[in-house]
Request: fold
Amino acid sequence: MSISTETTETDAIVEELDWPATRLRVRNLRTAFRVDGALRPVVHGVSFDLRPGECVAIVGESGSGKSVTARSLVGLAGRSAVVEADELTIHHEDVRGFGPREWKRIRGRDIGFVLQDALVSLDPLRPVGREIDEALRLHGWGGRRARRERVLDLLTRVGVPFPAVRAKQRPDQLSGGLRQRALIASAIALDPDIVIADEPTTALDVTVQAQVLDQLELMKERGASVILISHDLSVVARLADHILVMRGGDVLEQGPAGQVLGAPAHEYTRALIAAVPGEATRGHALTPGAAAVPTKPPAGAVVLEATDLVKRFHTSDGTVTTAVDRVSFSLRAGETLGIVGESGSGKSTTARLALGLEALDGGTVRLLGQPWAPLAESRRRGLRSRIAVVYQDPLSSFDPRWNVERILLDALRSERFPSAEERRARVLELLQQVGLPANVLPRFPLKLSGGQRQRVAIARALAPRPDVIVLDEAVSALDVTIQAQILDLLAELQRESGVAYLFISHDLGVISHLSDRVLVMKDGVVVEEGSPDDVFERPAHPYTRALIAAIPEFDPAARAATTPESETAA
Amino acid sequence: MTALGTPPSPAAAPVRPTLATRLGRVPWGLVLAVAFAVLLLVAVIAPQALTTHLPTAIDYQAALQQPSLAHPFGTDESGRDLYTRVIWGARDSLTIGLGAAAVSVGLALVLGTLAALGVKPVAVVIDRFVEILFAFPALLLALLLIAIAGPSAATQVFAVGIGTAPGYARMIRGQILGARNSGYVEAATALGHSRWRILRAHILPNALRPLVAVFALSIGQSIVWASSLSFLGLGVAPPASEWGALLDAGRQYLTTAWWLVVIPGLVIVAVALAATTIGRHIQARLEKGERS
Reply:
């Protein structure tokens, strides 16, 4: 067992060895929801064992039933849920038929649950220290003074600096990473030996994600059993010993991590792994159906040129922050320039400056060799059709009253498509280009899936045949297989039309997959620039190195080579 | 969380709704409100169709009678049939209510749009002006206008309309600002559409969508406001049987003839309730439409 390598936590080991081998055992777990008097099954049979010091990961995309499975295991599936199982034991106790009070006894003490979004999961009006204290108090843990020490100890353990200060702060005074760690601290307050983490790092910056994963790993080393729910294979690859792959409520494949990631048996697992963008996939399609991407022709003339862009924001208390500080770049026809950075790095502001949607405080932008910013909007309008944008959240960028047809026709209202027939033909051509059937035309974006919406947004951006498309986190909200389809589509469109992309993302994998050149931004400044090979293989700046080090390693082949022997032990 | 380990209930197929659940789904409030609105419409257009007496027919023999079969709402101190007076008063009351609502929403539309979209000095001045108006209670504002222009039906319409306009102006301003800062307006800017086109195609339609509902809601409110002015003796003059005036006239008989106050009061409440119910329904329908 993996515990045997741990030598420092002697007490923990002794305790661990006393435990029977399986902490949680589930067979054929089925969950259905009552909807309008009918039962709608959501999870159709999940079985696994959870042993000490082991991490079982449930991987799947949205709607796969992975979160419902996790919640069903601890009685949190909700009132309308009907949970059944042939066997469900926690510490050899049959928990089927548990009522709310019995679950309350188990949750917190035996099982800690870390939820996805720390901001909504923590009481906004309560200092985080009190939140953690509450978890201890409800289970009658120690006296007041002992609890206070315990809270500080817990915050230290999850890597919160200055715990005495942080404990007195409210969630809104903490950064996302600190909040998530405080939430983990409250979940492990009573040293539960089972921790369920539901997308614990989604929405976190990559360096913060690395810190949170370190914490989970440490807990595992100390003998805790972890159930990890995630859509992100690279996160799963780092922690999991055993992986379940779910889709549409079914477990398609399960087994030791090395086997599932290294030699996947199911087609969907293979597609899922192939869909993860990164350095290794550059120049290759991510989806099986897509045509292989041939080497691109050399980039053409400069289409967009930004020189010393500066943007300052004035906050209400009179302070001035420089969001973008002397950023320069140039973009050539047919080329993709990736701008990567964490939240607050100024990458999205840079995109808005390049689009002329935000007033400059300094510097100039030229589009197709002509002045673009600073310039009055009315004088810019003639060039507007040469540059387009795709946002992260396409839904909010569509007028809610308009259907797809009207959205696309509206984008063609320019002198280049004078007649109605031409516009109509162009709309059908666009749909075909982005791989949408013509029957989406009368539909409203709200009724489309996330991937379809993003395709509509891309079609709208393509409509006036622009020279530059700014993609601002355009694939960040999509499931990994959908993301792969959109990335393949973007590559194909670029090859066909020679359009240049300014691609903004926090995701280094996506950036290194797609970009011809990369800009790394931090605190409004470009800290590194170069080809993806240079930036990712030979990073010069310490921040770039930290960023790259923080990416969870995802290399299925390497993973398969070092399949841990511990899988077969118990 | 229910019944871990129990077999699934066989009722996996949707259950056919029983008569009781189907009746439960009928929006009875809305049905009543619409029926009431139709009745009011008849009362406004042809009050004689709903009454047998005349509103001014005096019969001292039958003064201050309790509600009975002959006089369903009772009679007043001059023996006039209260039911007849209420029906004949509908035209005055509703005209004032509708007129005031139109003045209020119309004024609010102009002020709100200018405050949200006007060039800076204009927008700021209007914004402050609306805020100052907002600081006065609506009734005080209305009283001020009547004090200047003297009581009459027309003054009442304008007094109530102007008094209630600031609140709606704020709402419209907020709606327009919300639409102006939305993602779809930015997307339209990025497409190179002109300011005027964006205003016409996106900002105004989206911002003013809830206006129908607001108007319906404000009718009910205006009738109540107008009635309170009449009650204070600042509305239409007797012998007109506007509902607020009926209340005012009945006040002195409150201890002996309760129906003279209670029944017109209930009618005002019913009208406000009906208008609000219909308004909310329209609002809900519009919001639902936005999501389809």
